[in-house]
Design a protein that fits this description.
Layout: H1 7-16, H2 20-41, H3 49-67, H4 90-114, H5 118-138
């Protein structure tokens, strides 16, 4: 699958993230995965080409917002697997990433409300907007 094997562990990590730092770390990983997958999928489905290009840009911006937050751990990321294709369609991948991004956006909004540091609040809020943008770009209803 197209790095879809990485989606389920990220869902679990996102659900378990109980601190601002944990949320920022998993946000970094999710945005990194979304960017890699979006770049890999852009040429595979002409109808989703623009959505994937804009998604990759939003994911990069969200990753950077999380990465500059004061509370992010020094080594936030886990390696993103190389793209491996199987029977999963690009549309199915888009739907899975959209769902993950939607949950991430809500989790980042909660983290922004919990953050004591104003820079963490700003970073979480900015990353949340980018996660919601990814969700909107890839959600089935938006196509």
């Amino acid at each position: 699958m197209v790095a879809v094997q990485d989606i389920d562990p990220l869902r679990v990590r996102l659900s378990a993230a109980g601190t601002v730092a944990d949320t920022l770390a998993v946000a970094w990983d999710i945005f990194e995965l979304v960017q890699v997958v979006a770049n890999g999928c852009a040429d595979r489905e002409p109808n989703l080409f623009a959505a994937f290009l804009f998604t990759a840009a939003a994911a990069a911006e969200g990753r950077d917002a999380a990465g500059f937050a004061p509370s992010i751990p020094d080594t936030p990321g886990m390696p993103v697997s190389p793209l491996q294709w199987d029977v999963t369609t690009v549309a199915e991948i888009a739907d899975q990433l959209a769902a993950l991004a939607g949950v991430l956006g809500r989790k980042l909004e909660l983290a922004a409300g919990q953050a004591a540091d104003p820079e963490d609040r700003r970073a979480c809020a900015h990353a949340a907007r980018q996660a919601h943008q990814v969700h909107e770009l890839l959600a089935l209803g938006g196509r």
